[in-house]
Amino acid sequence: MITAVAAAAAAAALLSVVSATATAPATAPATAAVRAPAPAAPGAEPGWTAEPAAGSRPYVYLEGAPGTVMEDRLSVTNRGTEPLTVRLRGAAAYNTKNGEFAVRTSRAGTGSWIALASERVTVPPRTRADVPFAVTVPASATPGDHPAAIVATAGGREVGVRLHLRVSGPTLAALTVEDVRVEGKRIHYALVNRGNTVLAPRLALRAEGFTGELLARPARPLPLELLPGRRVELTEPWPDHPVLDSVDITLRVTASGGAHGEATASAVYVPWAAVTGGALALGAAAGAVALWRGRRREDEALEQTDTERHLAEAGVQP
């Protein structure tokens, strides 16, 4: 168990390291924290990047028990010809309503676990600066994944470096499929992560009607990571749905760790334009028949009146 005093000492040590990183010249020796990056590709636009240090990692992975202090580094590369000042902050991550990965604007939650050696770093031209940071897992932290990010901001642009933080302990992979409905050419549904691990869901889709199977899409990865406790609302296109049928649609979603969920919805497809047009045509035909019958009655009444008049003139009782 790491005490609060030890954590503070670690943060202080990191601060002294990054001070050298931010002020080191571009010609610093290989042992310094600032290193020259690989040259940019010909014709590439000048800019800057932020990414995990030491190799081409897609994200930073750290795992520890409650009370642990874990350390890693962030690389900020300035490919431009002028010094670049970058602001850094830690933030908790979440899924937006449509499943995108996003970060909080405040430091609440997992963002408060992250201590940067410096929140403002100036990187010389054509130079890479490695910024140390520490993650202190609270003693009360629950087991499982706690997604976060370090957000780098400079020149009106933000770059997020993802942190996959896992607290040691029992893990549960679980999800549900909810609120399936069909609207026109789209199938709407919601996914909810009921466990404590990040899930990479896969979706399989099946539809059956009166004539048999209408749709069979094998399982494929969805373009999102479903974070613990999050709910996302997604849609699936169905451009070639039937014109006239009663359909049962089944969505089955699976993910690693044995997570799976399934839900079914029904939909009735009716060619309303044709039905409406047919109803209008029938209505018009019925109206024409009624009009014809009305006129026929009027003609018959006139004929009867004329007959009675002629008989009366001839002195014959009708």
Coarse morphology: elongated
The named CATH superfamily of the largest domain? Immunoglobulins
| Approximate helicity band | 10-25%
Question: Which stretches are low in confidence, meaning pLDDT under 50 for 5 or more residues running?
Answer: 1-41, 277-282
**Spatial extent as radius of gyration:** 36 Å
The end-to-end distance, rounded to whole angstroms, is 121 Å
Strand content: 35-45%
Biggest pleated sheet: 6 strands, mixed
Based on secondary structure, the structural category is alpha+beta
User: How many E strands?
Assistant: 18
Number of domains: 3
- CATH C-level class of the largest domain is Mainly Beta
Which whole number gives the mean pLDDT? 81
Q: What pattern of helices and strands is seen along the backbone?
A: HEEEEEEEEEEEEEEEEEEH
Number of helices: 2
The CATH topology of the largest domain is what?
Answer: Immunoglobulin-like
Tell me the CATH architecture of the largest domain: Sandwich
Characterise this structure.
By secondary structure, this protein is an alpha+beta fold. The chain has 3 domains: 4-167, Immunoglobulin-like (Sandwich), CATH 2.60.40.10; 175-269, Immunoglobulins (Immunoglobulin-like, Sandwich); 271-318. The protein has helices at 4-23, 272-313; strands at 34-35, 48-52, 60-64, 69-78, 84-95, 101-103, 114-116, 120-123, 127-136, 144-154, 157-167, 175-183, 186-193, 202-209, 212-221, 231-237, 245-255, 259-269. Strands 3, 5, 6, 8, 10 and 11 form a 6-stranded mixed β-sheet that branches. Strands 1, 2, 4, 7 and 9 form a 5-stranded antiparallel β-sheet that branches. It has a 4-stranded antiparallel β-sheet with strand order 15-14-17-18, with no helix packed on it. A hairpin with a 2-residue loop joins strand 12 (175-183) and strand 13. The chain is elongated, with a radius of gyration of 36 Å.
